[in-house]
């Protein structure tokens, strides 16, 4: 998905998709996600100055990705963000880092007319995947996410915000994460917080960074990475014979001392294990990749649903 292609995440209702029921489909309660609410006359303005995304021009019901960086340009968290009216913004992120992120953002509110709260209990999140029959729900908010693409076949994905359990088959949480991996959209978790500059996990390629919006923490470093030199690290889909974990290091067989990358996100569907792995681009042609150590499980290259620009390769 191109950086300006936010429309792909905002189809409502979801269009019919040629998704096969042979691929993961159904609904799952996302207990590992949480929601931060920003409310007030200056909520959008405040977040606009903190996140990598244009918040002030976000429309009601529109969904955008965003990152929150440290002053060193490293991603503290990533968000799925949407607006409810002129004074309410909602940010869905990994639950294991939500308290720390909420505390950190609150430190910078100062006199801004913006109140930040944890709305996770009030706004339960469900992950929906597969045919539109499983996604045709009422009584909640349907937030379109980027499709997962498996062997060239798209699998529709969405977040559903509701206190009511959706209909349709149950989906295993690990299978949902497997689809997350195949969407090519990294979700920062506690184990990977402050590990990556946005481009290392392709955040700008999936519409999560707006380089025209103005300043945000770490903006100079993020911009320099984009415009002043070749990017040396990117994220790729890798397959494994064993389950992987976010934060797990990846090594070349020829170099047991120096990690070549780190697992950003991982999931499994049955015996199929996949991960979105941040890697040195040079490692792609430097030999066999292994998880955990140079003697760990062999990793094989999968396929992203978008193209990494050749100038960055």
Oligomer: single chain
What is the top-level CATH class of the largest domain? Answer: Alpha Beta
User: Please, what is the CATH homologous superfamily of the largest domain?
Assistant: Probable tRNA modification gtpase trme, domain 1
Distance between the termini: 18 Å
Instruction: Choose one word for the global shape.
Output: globular
**CATH fold-type name of the largest domain:** Gyrase A, domain 2
Overall description:
The chain has about 325 residues and is mainly β. The protein folds into two domains: about 1-230, Gyrase A, domain 2 (2-Layer Sandwich), CATH 3.30.1360; about 230-305, Elongation Factor Tu (Ef-tu), domain 3. Helix content is about 10%, strand content about 30%. The chain has a six-stranded antiparallel β-barrel. Strands 3-4-5-2-6 form a five-stranded antiparallel sheet. A hairpin with a 2-residue loop joins strand 8 (about 140-150) and strand 9 (about 155-160). Mean pLDDT is about 90; it is low at about 1-20.
């Amino acid at each position: 998905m191109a950086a300006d292609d936010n429309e792909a995440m905002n189809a409502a209702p979801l269009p019919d998709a040629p998704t096969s029921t042979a691929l993961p489909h159904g609904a799952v309660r996302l207990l590992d996600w949480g929601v931060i609410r920003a409310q007030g006359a200056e909520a959008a303005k405040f977040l606009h100055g903190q996140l990598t995304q244009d918040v002030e021009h976000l429309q009601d019901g529109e969904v955008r990705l965003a990152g929150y960086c440290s002053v060193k340009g490293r991603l503290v968290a990533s968000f799925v963000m949407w607006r409810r009216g002129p004074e309410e913004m909602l940010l869905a992120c990994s639950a294991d880092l939500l308290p720390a992120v909420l505390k950190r953002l609150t430190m910078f509110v100062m006199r801004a007319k913006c109140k930040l709260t944890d709305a996770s209990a009030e706004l339960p999140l469900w992950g929906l995947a597969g045919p539109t029959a499983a996604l045709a729900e009422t009584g909640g908010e349907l937030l379109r996410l980027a499709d997962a693409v498996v062997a060239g076949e798209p699998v529709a994905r969405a977040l559903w915000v509701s206190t009511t359990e959706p209909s349709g088959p149950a989906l295993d949480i690990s299978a949902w994460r497997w689809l997350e991996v195949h969407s090519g959209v990294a979700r920062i978790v506690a184990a990977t917080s402050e590990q990556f500059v946005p481009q290392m996990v392709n955040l700008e390629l999936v519409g999560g960074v707006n380089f025209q919006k103005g300043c945000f923490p770490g903006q100079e470093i993020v911009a320099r990475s984009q415009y002043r030199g070749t990017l040396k690290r990117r994220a790729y889909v890798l397959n494994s014979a064993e389950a992987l974990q976010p934060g797990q290091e990846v090594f070349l067989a020829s170099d047991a001392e120096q990690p070549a990358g780190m697992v950003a996100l991982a999931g499994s569907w049955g015996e199929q294990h996949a991960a979105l792995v941040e890697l040195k681009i040079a490692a792609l042609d430097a030999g066999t990749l292994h998880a955990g150590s140079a003697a760990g499980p062999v990793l094989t290259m999968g396929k992203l649903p978008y193209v990494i620009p050749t100038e960055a390769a």
